[in-house]
Amino acid sequence: MTPSTSTLTFSWTPATLVFGAAVVLVTAVLSYLIWKRNGCSRSTALVECLRLLGVVLVAITLNQPEWKETFLPDEKPTIAVLWDQSNSMNTIDVLHQKNPAAPLRKRSDLVHDLLQADLWKNLEEKVDLVFEPFSSRQEVPSEGTNLSAALDKVSEQHPKLRGLVLFSDGDWNEGDPPARAATRLRMRNTPVFALAVGSETRLPDIEALSFEVPTFAITGKPVRLPFTLSSSLPQDRTVSVSMTTDEGDELAKEVTIPALGRVQDTFSWKPGAIGEVNLTLAVAPVEEERNTKNNQLSAPMSIRKEELKVLLIESYPRWEYRYLRNALERDPGVQVKCLLFHPDIKAKGGGQDYLNEFPDPDVLSGFDVIFLGDAGLIENQLTEKQCVELKQQVATQAAGLVFLPGFRGYQHTLEQSALGDLLPVILDQAQPRGWGSPSPGQFELTDAGLRSLLTRLADDDNENQDIWQSLPGFQWFAGVERAKPGTEVLATHSSESNRYGRIPLIVTKTFGTGKVLFMGTDGAWRWRKGVEDKYHYRFWGQVARWMAYQRNMASGETMRLFYSPDRPQSGDVLTLNANVLSIGGEPLKAATVMVQATAPSGKVESLQLQPGGEAQWGLFTGTMTPMEPGEYRITMTCVENGGALDSNITVQGSAREKTDQPARYDVMEEIAKITRGELIHKPNVKAIIEKISALPEPPPMERRLLIWAHPIWIGLIVLLFSLFWIGRKMIGTV
To answer: How far apart are CA 589 and CA 433, in angstroms?
Structure first.
C-alpha cells in the first residue's frame, strides 16, 4: 500500500500552546538582553540562538507533533459464507414458503439452493466471496458439528474478513460453546448474519428411541425386550407396535404414548432354534406424522443352548436350600452341584450331584453361579483359602455369588475373611442370628427394584408390583445395618427399620468382573404356596441367568470374552475382559492377547489386553470407546495357546449427530447478537446481500510517527542544550 495523504499534526491544548508560547517569548527577551549586555557580540548571539532554538523545540514537544500517513485499502474485503454439512442438516422439516401443503424438504437442500443463487455474483465486484462448508473433526466429519471451530478457522484464515454469513440449524455437539468464538469475532468487528435452517419446533412425529436387545438368549427361555417410544404429537396417541424376527416370528401390541412425552414397554419373546437372529421393532405410522424413517429399529441376537453350571454351598439342608436345589435340578439347562456341610459331624452330605469336598480351583472355575448359604469361616466349613478362591472366581472369572444367610448366623464370620469385600451389606454384629417374628413380613420394592429384571415376576409393571405385595410373607430376616456404598438396593422390609432407614433385603453389587447378590431372608420357598414354582423358580432362575450373563457372552476352549457394560451405548467406554487358559487348562500369568474390533463402517481398531496382575491370573483387560452404533465384529487371539475367538458386540444408541431434532434458533440468535450481526428469519439471498452491502466501508489505515517521542528528536534537544552550555562556558558569559 502507498500512502494517500501525509500531514503533520499536533495534539495541543490551549494550556500547552499558551505555556509554550510564553516560555519561548520570555526566553527570547532574556537572550536579547544578554546579547545587548555582552556588547552585541557574534559569539553571544550564536550561543543565545542555540538556547532559543532548544526552548522552541521543547515548546513544540509539549504540543506532541506527529507525522500521520493515511493508507486507503487497495484490496477488496472478504465476506465468508459458512454452511453446515453435518448429518443433522439431512432432517426433513423445511416447509415450502408459498405452499405449506407441499412435501417437506431437507435442510441441506434449502442451503444448496441459497448457495447457487445468481445474486451472489453482484457482490463479487465489491468483496471477495469465500464459500466454506463445516462439520466436525470426527473421523467421519458429518457425524458431528463444531460451530466454534468453524468460526475461529475462517477468522484466522482471512485477516481482512469484513462479515460472515452462517447457514446452519444451530445444532452443535463438539468443541467450545459458539458464544466464545462469537466474542472473538466481535473483538475483530466482524458481524455474523445467521440464517437458521429448519423448523424451530419438532414436527409431528413418533420415534422409536431404543430397542434393548441382549447379546444372547437361551432357546426355549423367555427373554424380555424393552423398548422406548417418544412422541411430539400434542395429544395422547395409541399406536401399534410390532416385533418381528427374520425367522418369521411376530409379536404385536397397542401402546399409548403421552402427548409430547415418551413411554417404555416390553415384549416377552421365547426364542426357538439355535443360531443368529435379527429382531426388528416397528411402529405403525400415524396420519399426522411427517417423518416415518425413525419408526423402526433392528438389533441382532445369538440364540444358544443353555449350559449353566451352579454350585450350592450350605451347612444344614434348610427348606430354602431344598426347594432351590430341586427347582434348579429340574431345569434341563442347568447343571447343579451341591456341597452340604454338617458342622456337627465330620461327614459331608452325599448323594447324586453332591461334592465330597470343596472343589479345587480348576474345578471351581467351571461354575457360573455360586449360592453360598448359611455357612462361614469356621471349623468343618469354609477355610480362609477357600474364601480367597471364591473371591477370585467372582473378581476374575466373571462368576456370580449369591449370599443366602440363615438363622444360625454363620455368614457373620465372613466379614473378616476375603469374602468381606464382596458382601454388599454391613451385617449387624449385635444380632448375628437375625430377627424372627410370629407375624410374616413383606418385601417392598425400591425404585430400582421396580425397574430391575431380577425382581420381574410379571411382564406388566402394575401386575408385578401387585404380585410382590401379595406374596406369602417371611418370618425371619437377617440382621443388617445398611447397604454399602456403590450397591443397588432392590427391596427392603416393608415395615422394619433402624437408624439408617428400612432394612435392606435384596441388594446387588458388581465386584471385579462378576456380580454379587444378597438375599436377606430364607423364606422365598413360601412363594410356592398355591402356585408351585411359578414365582419361586422364576426369581431364582432370573438371578442365576443374570449373574452368569457376562460370563457366557463368548467362550471357547481356552478363552472367554466378556465386557461391561453389557448394553454399551455409542460413546461409552467399553471394558473388555478375557479369561485365558493354557492348553493344559491353567490360567496364564502373562500372554499376548490381541483384540481386533471391526466397526459397522468397516473401520478396524486393534488393542492388546493387559494382564490383571499377580492376584488375577488368567484375567486380561482393556478398554475401547465405540463411537458408531451397530454391530462390532470382535476377534480375539492369543499367541501362547494358539486360540482364537470370534464374537459380536452390539452398540446401541444413536449417533452423536442426530436428525429430526428442532433447529437451534437460540444458538444462531446468540451468535448474531454477540457479533452485532443479525438473525435472518427468511431464506432470502437478496435480503442477506442487502445486509452485507449496508456494512460501513472499512476505515483507512493510519500510520503515525510520534515525533515528540522519537529518540532523534529527544537527542536533538539534548544536543542543542549541550552546545549552548559548552559555548556559554567558552565565551565566559555570566
So the answer is: 42
